[in-house]
What we know:
Blueprint: H1 2-10, H2 13-20, H3 25-40, H4 45-73, H5 79-89, H6 100-111, H7 114-130
Helix pairs in contact: 1-4, 2-4, 3-4, 4-7, 5-6
Amino acid sequence: MLDVFDVFDAHPWVGTQLAAEPWQPAVLRVFDRVGTLLDALGVPASAQFDATSTLVHHVLGVAGQYAAAARLAGPGTDRSAFLGAVATRRTTQGGADAFPFLDRVATTFADHDDRAQFRAGVDVILAGIATLR
């Protein structure tokens, strides 16, 4: 999964391409590979489709975010400054109490490591999948 993330990181346009046609061969290949790996982990056949869909949707969601960020921020944009500006804007949209969660995580949001967050998402999903065995 981290190899797939690294492709998105190096080539953000891939997210746009994958989202444009989710049943294209590249997406089907990812879906098949993830499903094959979950089968090898012993995920029951009755849960494999849902488990695979959840992981693939996480991957495609990250791909879409990378593509959108690349379009919005533009080349050469300082990532922390961009995310810091996004985090700061939250308080101007509906008042200081409109986004209590975002207020609590604003610093983390601006300085988070995308790869670590992606891996944490995969870990959370895999922990849930492990309960199915």
